[in-house]
Amino acid sequence: MVDDNTREIKVDIEAGLRINTTSEEVAIHTKATLEQSFKRKFAYAISTRNFIMLDCDDKTKFDKFLAFCRGLALKECAKCIIYETPNGYHAFLDKFMPRDRVRRFLIHLRDAIKHGKIDFIDLAHVEASLRRGYITLRLNQIRRVAIINELGEVKLLEAMPE
Amino acid sequence: MVKQSPDVEVEPEPDEKQHLRVLLIKELRARKPYEEEARKEMEKILEENPLIQDVYKYFEWGWIWWTIIPEKSK
User: Fold this and answer.
1) How far is A1 from chain B (nearest CA, A)?
2) Do A8 and A72 sit in the same domain of this protein?
3) Angle between helices A99-114 and A123-132 (to 10 degrees)
4) Do residue A59 and residue A135 come from a single domain?
């Protein structure tokens, strides 16, 4: 049953084929090998269990996302950087945290999204992070758009969407 | 009667050797540009990607690592 096999491989790739490595060399080799084996493109991403990384999937909600990140920066007394992506925004809170703390944050975030208190963070991304035990962000076509310092002061780097 | 060992190595004939060599070179040539492409992409990310620039110091302690995932279908 060639069709079934093909379908199964496709499902596997879409659902969760992912390789983790701390080595750049292994990452390069793995990407090339996977692309050659599966005849499709793969992308580099980064993952962590010890930092908060957020994914906003709505370009029209930058103000809300910025306000949320500012609150986070103030609460954690840490720098937070926001990046624009082709489909929305990413944020990185520059503060090392134990895994449990990151996990508890994700659980609260998931509940807040489910109860409608937050509508600008990608629920699927938060749920996938909880399921896997780590947060992953894609790296394609991103640029820094805002830096929030430990005091909550915001520095916008480019013209923001209206 | 000489008993033949089942795991005896068979030395290829000279022309067969040449054929295998050509095949191997062809495969290596086909593979190299592919890895070069991935290497160039990684170099570009390391040089230009602001997120990587901001987090790169954390790779050293294993707090952040690389993940290879399928590109999103268009």
Assistant:
1) 25
2) no
3) 150
4) yes
Min CA distance, A74 vs chain B (Å)? Answer: 19
C-beta atoms of A45 and B68 within 8 A: yes
Q: How many domains does chain B have?
A: 1
The answer to whether the pTM exceeds 0.90 is: no
Same domain, A108 and A133: yes
Q: What is the pLDDT of residues A4-60, one digit of tens each?
A: 444 444 444 555 678 899 899 889 988 998 888 888 899 999 999 999 999 998 999
- Are A13 and A61 in the same domain? no
- Chain B residues lying within 8 Å of A24, measured CB to CB: 42, 46, 66
Identify whether B4 is part of a domain: no
- Search chain A and give the residue with CA nearest B42: A28
Domain containing A148 equals: 47-156
Q: Do A51 and B58 count as a contact with CB atoms less than 8 A apart?
A: yes
Is the CB of B68 less than 8 angstroms away from the CB of A31?
A: yes
* Residues spanned by the domain of B44: 14-58
ipTM of the complex: 0.87
CA-CA-CA-CA torsion sign (B10, B13, B16, B21): positive
Burial group, residue A96, by CB count within 10 angstroms (0-12, 13-18, 19+): middle
pLDDT tens profile B6-50: 555 556 677 777 777 777 777 766 667 778 889 999 999 999 999
